[in-house]
Amino acid sequence: MAVFVVPESLKIMVGQTEEPIVFKVEEGAIQRYARAVGDANPLYNDVEYAAQSKWGRLLAPPAFPGWPVKSDGFDMIKFVEKLIKAGAPMGLLDGGVDYEFFSTVAAGDTLVAVTKIESIEGRETKLGPTMITTVETTFTNERGGKAFVMRNMFLNF
User: Fold this and answer.
1) Would you say residue 37 lies in a domain?
2) What is the rounded CA–CA span in Å between residue 21 and residue 68?
3) What is the pLDDT of residues 2-61, one digit of tens each?
C-alpha cells in the first residue's frame, strides 16, 4: 500500500499563521445561531433571562465564534486552494472538527481568531494515499484569555 509522501512545499506550511480575524459577538447573531442549531436554552435566546443570570448577558452556544468584523476574513476555500497549489492532492473530504473550551463567550465580547496549520501527514486510507491536514484556530477574548480552540481536519486524496 502506498502512503502519501508530504512534499517540502507543504511541510514548510506547518506552523504558519493566517492573518488574525476580529469577531464581535452580537446578541442577534447568538439568537439566530441558537435557533439554527435548535438550542432553546434561554441563556442563548432570552435577553431578559440571561440578564438575570450570573453572567448578566446572553451567552454564546458552544462553537459559536461571533460575527467577523473584517470583510476580508479567513476563507477556507482559498486556504484549501493554497494547499493544492503547494502540492496537496485535489480530492477533498471534511474530516470533522473538534473544540476545546476555556472560557464562556457572551454578547459584547470581541474575539480574535488566529488560524494555523497544526500538522500535515501522509497515510494510507480506504481512499488510497491520503494527506491529512489539521488546521487549528485559536479564539482569544478581549482580555487576552483563550476562549476556545477549533481544530478542523481535512483529507486530500
Assistant:
1) no
2) 7
3) 889 999 999 999 999 999 999 899 999 999 999 999 999 999 999 999 999 999 999 999
pLDDT digits (tens, 9 = 90+) for 49-107: 999 999 999 999 988 876 666 545 667 788 888 999 999 999 999 999 999 999 999 99
Whether 34 is covered by a domain: the verdict is no
- Backbone phi and psi for residue 20, each to the nearest 5 degrees, phi listed first: -60, 150
Q: How many CB atoms lie within 10 A of CB 132?
A: 19
Specify whether the CB–CB gap between 120 and 13 falls below 8 A. yes
CATH of the domain at 89: 3.10.129.10
Q: How far apart are CA 11 and CA 117, in angstroms?
A: 10
For residue 17, the enclosing domain spans 8-25+60-156
Q: What nine digits make up the cell of 19?
A: 492573518
